[in-house]
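hiii so um. not sure if this is the right channel but i have a protein structure encoded as tokens and i wanna go backwards to a sequence. like what aa goes where. can anyone help
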């Protein structure tokens, strides 16, 4: 008996959408921090689910990949306007990475760095958070810093970028920046909360590069 086909909704991944094969879906979510996706038995149901918020479907029934989906808070409230928001972009074709930060209340761009060769998105998110913390420390400001990367936030808390990326002649500058960021975290105290940007409640990270 032929196996019934599955359809896969990717709400958060490298490229969101509805996919008709697990291989196509996996390319969008595998290794992507905070990926949100689920399988459905029909294309019509999948397309309807894609038009809705993921928290209405994640955890509802059995799904391959549900365990990997980010857990969502029962109530996310609203983001603090007096804050900085950071994000990174990684080009899958070239391997180039860049990152930036904005002041949320005015959407003013505060910094934009890169592109850096042979990087990763998580490294960019980590560097962006530390860059924001260092700038705010100079200004003696304790406002929060938002990032949509749980991985990068955990690295900052541990004061260590736990990357598996291998150093190469192409990314030597990037590893110098990582070392500098880790040394800054080890030698500076900061009171700024580093918070998760809840995309599924607040919309796209306003520091996003807009290349999805």
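sure thing!! here u go:
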């Amino acid at each position: 008996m032929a196996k019934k086909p599955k359809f896969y909704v990717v709400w958060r991944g490298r490229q969101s959408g509805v996919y008709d094969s697990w291989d196509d879906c996996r390319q969008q979510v595998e290794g992507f921090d905070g990926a949100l996706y689920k399988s459905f038995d029909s294309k019509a149901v999948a397309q309807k689910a894609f038009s809705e918020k993921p928290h209405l479907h994640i955890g509802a029934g059995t799904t391959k990949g549900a365990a990997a989906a980010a857990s969502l808070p029962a109530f996310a409230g609203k983001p603090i306007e007096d804050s900085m928001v950071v994000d990174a972009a990684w080009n899958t074709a070239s391997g180039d990475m860049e990152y930036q930060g904005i002041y949320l209340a005015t959407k003013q761009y505060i910094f934009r760095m890169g592109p850096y060769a042979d990087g990763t998105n998580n490294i960019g998110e980590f560097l962006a958070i530390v860059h924001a913390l260092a700038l705010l420390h100079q200004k003696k400001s304790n406002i929060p810093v938002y990032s949509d990367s749980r991985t990068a936030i955990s690295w900052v808390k541990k004061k260590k970028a736990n990357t598996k990326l291998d150093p190469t002649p192409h990314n030597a500058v990037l590893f110098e920046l990582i070392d500098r960021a880790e040394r800054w975290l080890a030698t500076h105290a900061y009171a700024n909360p580093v918070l998760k940007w809840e995309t599924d409640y607040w919309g796209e990270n306003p520091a996003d590069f807009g290349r999805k």
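oh and Residues 133 and 139 are 10 Å apart (CA to CA).
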